[in-house]
What does this fold into?
Amino acid sequence: MARLKTKSSTKGTRRACGCGNGCLGPLMFNAEAKGQLVRLSEGGRRATREISSFQHGLVFSSRPVKIQEKVCLRIERSVSGWHGALRIGITTVEPGSRSLPPLAIPDLTYSQGYWATLVPEDQCEPRTELKFWVCRRGCLRIRTSDGQTHIMETQVNTRDAIWAMIDVYGQTNAILLIGSEKKGFFSTRRSCPVLTIDATEENCGYDILPTEKPQKIPEKQTPASLFCQNKEHNTSNEHLEECVVCFSTRADVLLVCGHRCLCPQCASRVAQEIGSCPLCRHRI
It folds into this structure.
């Protein structure tokens, strides 16, 4: 078996696998840069977030991905009870060079060098496979199981090292890296061959939130000033069309800071899990 050789450069960490020029190298999750609630298994290819929370599920690729390198992953487990699902993105900031916040959106996407977008909930069911890549123009492209390609414009410099960034968020709590490929004019290069892991009832399915985990804040713990739904209140940036947490429900809740950026269900959970406005970090 060929030994893996590691060497550092300004482009990140490169690994020579010995498979030949037709190999893109090993592809797994970075064990040194992951969310607080993430556990890696299957040689770093499976990322599982604890079901007790919808956040702290950030993971990154173990090496920079190439332009037009299509990364394929499978969603294995989901949690009934949380809103929102997988977030996919890219970064030019080397993983491990900074402490990780709870969320990709908006915690990281407000910082320079990070871009991410949501994957629709109906495309994040267990056993679903999807591919994503950075095109030559620097756009992030995501191909979902229904054959549609979703495009996100970014300002990424394609000459920089680019890492894949995934937030195992919300109802998504386990994903598996299947591999990657990059098509050329005469051949297709692929990541290192890995053991095939079939989708079975044991590793793919739904989990239920623990009964001891309250899904909503008890009434006695909800201060009257936490938020209101007075739509006559007028303040700048008070209304966004979609909730900034789940991106699937209208943002009708007005926080004490003046931002109307959450749906009622996510507002209760954000108050319990985070305790501050997702936009300005004002305590609620």
